[in-house]
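Appendix C reproduces, verbatim, an entry submitted by the partner laboratory led by Prof. M.T., so that reviewers can inspect both the input and the predicted structure.
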Amino acid sequence: MYSRWLECAGRKEYKGRVAGLRLIVVSALLLPSAFCIAYVPSSDSQTAEKSEQLPQDAETLLQKGQVDAAIAEYRRAIAAAPRDARNYYGLAVALDRAGALHDERVALEHALRLDASYAPVHNQLGLLNMKEAKQILAAAEFKTAIELDPHYAEAKNNLGVLMRSQGENGKAEALFREAVAENAGYAQAMTNLGSLLAAEARLPEAAEVLRRAVQTDPKNVDTLTESAMVLMRMNRKAEAVEEFRAAVSGAPQRAEMHVNLGIALADSADLDGALREFTEATRLEPESGVAHYNRGRVLAEMNRDGEAKVELEKAVQLKDVEAEWWSVLGAQARKMGEKDEALRALRKAVALEPKNARRQYALGQELREAGDIDGAVAAWRSAVALQPAYADALYALSRALARTEPAESRELQSRFMNLQTQQRATDDAQTIGNSALNAAAAGEWATAISQLKKAIERCGECSVRPQLHKNLGLVYCRSGDLKNGESELLEADKLLPGDADIAKALQMIRVR
């Protein structure tokens, strides 16, 4: 299972295992602060009551989604109590909902002139600055809000979102945790924390945080989806499907929710169920390339080739087309014997991702089938240049050059054989290492240590060497041999800098 997470104005993506299907969810990370309405003393009791009631009415209208009416009511509240900064703040929140960002800024600046110590105004200014890509100003406003109100959970959450967008994951995590500590029922902060932990492959931690978030707000479809994504990555598919179903129930008109559930069902081998969800997604959003792409993939898996090709052709004509969609269309066309169309699709894929070695290799294969050996050689050369350890491309290129460039062909063949040898060493080391972990699970420490040492020796400089040293260090520690455990973990730390498990184990050894 491979995953890819993108943070872009709250957009996240995940790729499932089966047939390259893709999962998408849009999550609102920044939630406007709930605002308080202050009673404004007046010599006229009716005026005072009116100045209190108007903003309350405006807030009610805003909560009902009647944005224009809420804006009008806030303006009436301002006319009744022009010195109350909270009314300008409420107006700003309503204007933000309406997308009137210039007027929102004017209202917030007016609120600051009336009361610069009102923390929610600074928080809202931070959100506005983030929308306008003014990150430095946004950070300053969030920090000011926190200074004015050290227990302001929402401002801490929002500053955490900003820190994460700038790659400051450590600071972001601390802020999300502080926000949750300030407000144990703050599901959005829990969701953001879980998302960050998942992005760092700290899946058990992420799953636990997101479980609490779902318990806190069981109807929040974005939290449900975030949690389900993590469960899929942990191969807890049945649980993930249930949470995706809950998300669909909560937002049946959102096409992406049906896409998400469809992918989970496909990954669980329920192709009929997946097809139903993708079909519903295309009905709800006919211009969704992702929905058509996924529907085409499932139809291809079901060997409904003609229908699959139609769906894939629709997908590549829609917005945000990806190279993979063209590659899949090319593979489907080849399967149906449409070689010219397959070649055209693969050229499109390479044009979109010219630095993708896999696509260059696939294009080379198709060109060879079409009799264009020179074109195939050029594509395979590109693949090898992009990925020198690409065994299939090395082999194909060495065969193609056997007659015309025998010396280069022999050199490529030698590289291919070396890669094969390395892969065998890696496979052997992994097998021995897995056996060692089974022994460790049974408490057979001596056997586990012996096998891990053997795996490291067999591996040499293979790709799993860092993990083997880490496992050996942890097994040493669990067996009570902290000295050798520390030695192996220090070696692993050089090879896997920043690994949380290694850092935690070394810290525990030093404390003792």
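Residues 445 and 480 are 10 Å apart (CA to CA). Additional entries are available on request from the coordinating office.
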